[in-house]
Amino acid sequence: MDRIRIIGGAPLKGSIPVSGAKNAALPLMIASLLTSDTLVLENVPRLSDVRMLKRILNNHGVGIGVAGKRPGETVEDGERVSLSAASIVDTLAPYDLVSQMRASFWVIAPLLARMGEAKVSLPGGCAIGTRPVDLLLMALERLGASIEIDAGYVIAKAPSGGLRGGEIDFPKVTVGGTHTALMAAVLANGSTLIRNAAREPEVTDLAECLVKMGARIKGIGTATLEIDGVGKLGGTTHRVLPDRIEAGTYAFAAAMAGGDVTLEGISPTLLQAALDKLAQSGAEVIDTGTGIRVRSTGRDIAPVDVTTEAFPGFPTDLQAQFMALMTRANGTSHITETIFENRFMHVQELARFGARIRLDGDRAIVEGVPSLKGAPVMATDLRASVSLVIAALAAEGETMISRVYHLDRGFEGLESKLMRCGAQVERIRA
Ligand code: EPZ
């Protein structure tokens, strides 16, 4: 297993191109199952989760092509991926594939909408909580599907005339639930109303792509989505939106290690709540018009309390990274996690750097320390692992991070992006 060695202490200076968002690319790729025409996605990040989803979609019969580099294109432009589900050969998504990545469970919606049936293994994914799928199944039932769970599989069947429009009231905001409801409703007979829909930018990106494919969706970007089902969707070309979590991660890293970093190709509106907290901690955050510049002022990091919320609130996917920043604050901060019940696995690893963090239910109490010291640490889940990278960049001396396959799931070109800002980072291949 690869490891990453980081020698900390150097300020980060330079610019980092922001990749396409993993959490937008995955549902967009799955949406290719909704049409027999070709869906072309641009700016797809090169990540192991994307590779895994390609395998899963292949298994259903989706033909996938990746365009070669075009003149002027750099590796930072992401891939141009064509997905063609001209014929779906299998509506079964097996355990060995779905258990590796939770988002792959979402294939249930387009398979059901287009083929009238799907058998999908219950999902796996990052171990950050129980992560049930009850709300996703409730949404499908509201559209007329019958659902049965048997031997670890969800067996979903549409009524004989196909899915029909209905009302879906989510009791809590769910990103995957909203993706599922949208992909099922666009091909259903009649209208669907989704209340308390997730407003995450990745949901908006999916909805906008579906509209380009011929779907009729009103209320995009709001909590109430109205969908008029259509008989058929077609192909289109769509550019995956920039990764707000990647951008926020490097923004926090720049603030913690000191320095001046510009995140290219992302609008601050995608992560305003996180940038506001960063500014409160004392960093300068500047909208450059083409990106976000984060400059540390050299003053102490101020303690700032954070509570994770659905968009537009502070994202749970940046909680671990913000906690890393707060370990060096000049005082005590409180970090409350409201989305997932077990998303504090980074706490014990951050402690290896000398961080002082106490847990009290869904709240972490972080007592800032004047300096951290490099240590051997272990990546536990995707976002937790990158919080260790941030801490390592700011710590004195050497840190060795093991189990970095977690990082490869969600951070494209992590080492090269940090190295171009002067960080001492090295991957040690197994
Ligand atoms: C998406 O997960 C993201 N994954 C997560 O990012 C992200 O943390 C999460 O949304 C919240 O923003 C992808 O987009 C691939 P949810 P998802 O359904 O859709 C509960 C990362 O690191 N819930 O919005 O699985 C659930 O347990 C990942 O990139 C139910 O109770 O999250 C959680 O408490 C990690 N029943 C809350 O809702 C359900 O049926 C929100 O989950 C579904 C969800």
Describe the structure.
The structure is a single chain. With 430 residues, this protein is an alpha/beta fold. The protein has helices at 22-31, 48-60, 95-98, 108-115, 134-142, 175-185, 201-212, 244-257, 272-280, 319-326, 346-351, 382-394, 405-410, 414-419; strands at residues 3-8, 12-17, 38-44, 63-66, 79-84, 92-93, 117-121, 146-150, 153-157, 167-169, 191-195, 216-218, 225-228, 236-239, 259-264, 284-287, 291-295, 306-307, 332-336, 356-360, 363-367, 376-378, 397-402, 424-428. The protein has a four-stranded mixed β-sheet with strand order 22-23-1-24. Helix 1 packs parallel to helix 2 (48-60) and helix 8 packs parallel to helix 12. It is globular and about 65 Å long. Bound molecules: ligand EPZ. Residues 23, 26, 102-103, 126, 129, 131-136, 172, 174-177, 200, 202, 316-317, 339-340, 382-383, 410 line the site of ligand EPZ.
Question: What's a quick, concise take on this entry?
Answer:
It is built from 14 helices and 24 strands.
What is the strand and helix layout of this fold?
Layout: E1 3-8, E2 12-17, H1 22-31, E3 38-44, H2 48-60, E4 63-66, E5 79-84, E6 92-93, H3 95-98, H4 108-115, E7 117-121, H5 134-142, E8 146-150, E9 153-157, E10 167-169, H6 175-185, E11 191-195, H7 201-212, E12 216-218, E13 225-228, E14 236-239, H8 244-257, E15 259-264, H9 272-280, E16 284-287, E17 291-295, E18 306-307, H10 319-326, E19 332-336, H11 346-351, E20 356-360, E21 363-367, E22 376-378, H12 382-394, E23 397-402, H13 405-410, H14 414-419, E24 424-428
Parallel strand pairs: 2-15, 3-14, 6-7, 10-11, 18-19, 22-23
Antiparallel strand pairs: 1-23, 1-24, 3-5, 4-5, 7-9, 8-9, 11-13, 12-13, 15-17, 16-17, 19-21, 20-21
The structure holds ligand EPZ.
The site of ligand EPZ has 26 residues, from helix 1, helix 5, helix 6 and helix 12.
